[in-house]
Amino acid sequence: MGNLLAEKDSNEIKKHFEQQLINPVTLRLFVQDPNEPGECMYCSETEQICREVAELSDKINLTVHSNSTSEQEQHQKYGIERVPALILEKVSGTDSGVRFYGIPSGYEFGTLIEDITELSTGESKISTDLRKQVEQIQQDVTIKVFVTPT
User: Which strand (E) or helix (H) includes residue 89?
Assistant: First the structure.
């Protein structure tokens, strides 16, 4: 299988990462073990796109976990219930709470690149007013965004 990212896109993203990334970011990907029963739609493609993105900067590390018996502890640690699942970490082992279930393609790919950049720089595009409102929330909140391919 050839690259999923076009050469032009890879070059632009690489340039963006060179200019923007400051601190390392870990992409922690959970996929279906090919030796386990069941089929995972998009696991191999998600792994490939994550590998291609990780190759664009030495500040991006990729760790891949399968759902084999030896990896069950990692699935439990991160609360992974379905695959493919991608977790972004500021430092390896420090869960940022950012998760992608399914393949981050289409519009979601741009979101992935933005999330990697924001985690690396520690800067968010959230306005000061909205940030103040969020800081006043006194309980845990889970935000889920569902998208469908178009």
Answer: strand 85-89
Contact 27, 53 (CB under 8 A): yes
Q: Which helix (H) or strand (E) holds 96?
A: strand 95-101
Residues 6+ away with beta carbon under 8 Å from 131: 124
Please give the pLDDT value at position 92: 64
pLDDT at position 38 over 80:
no
Asked whether residue 22 is domain-assigned, the answer is yes
Of 58, 63, 69, 147, which is closest to residue 105 (Cα–Cα)? Answer: 147
Q: What pTM does this model have?
A: 0.84
Phi, psi of 65 (to 5 degrees): -120, 140
Q: How confident is the model at residue 25 (pLDDT cuts 50, 70, 90)?
A: very high
CA–CA dist 33, 40 (Å, integer): 9
Its domain, for residue 51, covers 7-135
